Amino acid sequence: xxxxGGGHAxxxxxxxxxxxxxxxxxxxxxxxxxxxMSCNPANWWNCQRPSVREVDALGGIMAEIADRTGIQFKxxxxxxxxAVWSPRCQSxxxxxxxxxxxxxxxxxxIEIIEEFCY
Length: 118
Fold this sequence. Notes:
By secondary structure, the protein is α/β, with parallel strands linked by helices.
């Protein structure tokens, strides 16, 4: 199995593929920037995109990395009804990437390939 890109979705696909028994080649531009977070280093558990809870339920590692690198945990929208409450974890950006690299590089069946193409 080949996964192109070491962002959040890429590391999740590589990890789950490896856990399922596939040999995985993860191709990324910089292995030390796996799952690099944006300028707002937060994981949101309830958004319009697939939630961290769904990824976690499917065997992903995003929530585990967030738990280990979190610097602030907060429930948003508490002034409104429970239907719109949303847990948020703000992580240390550098530590999040370091933990993602440690997790992926120590997972059996994953080979990280650094390649920079224009």
